[in-house]
Amino acid sequence: MFKRLVLAVVVIVAVAIAAAYVLRPELFTAEGRRARFIRSLERGPMMVRRSCQSMETFVQVSYWQAMRASDQEQTGRVLGEYCREQGSSGQMTILDAESNRKLAHWDGSAFQRF
User: Fold this and answer.
1) Looking at the whole model, is its pTM more than 0.90?
2) Residue 10: what pLDDT?
3) Secondary structure of the chain in the HEC alphabet?
């Protein structure tokens, strides 16, 4: 009985993974992960506005400062990569939405905090 239950669970999980891969392949690609990350930034309270043309993202500084350094770097890198795909140079400057103070910059290969 227990073996059948385990086998049934394994089969159901395998079928669900296969269906997700076939029906939504973007779940398993770097582009899909990047798109989901950007959507989560846009829906969350931190990011106020973003412009690929001006290569700037305005954030709520309290949320930005609460992030770990590695998460800040990932945010700058992902936003820069997204904007490069949209036709910009791939650089991204992170600014305080209230004071316009420069918080960080991604130049396409390195991240710098201010």
Assistant:
1) no
2) 86
3) CHHHHHHHHHHHHHHHHHHHHHHCHHHHCHHHHHHHHHHHHHHCCCEEEEECCCCEEEECHHHHHHCCHHHHHHHHHHHHHHHHHCCCCCCEEEEECCCCCEEEEECCCCEEEC
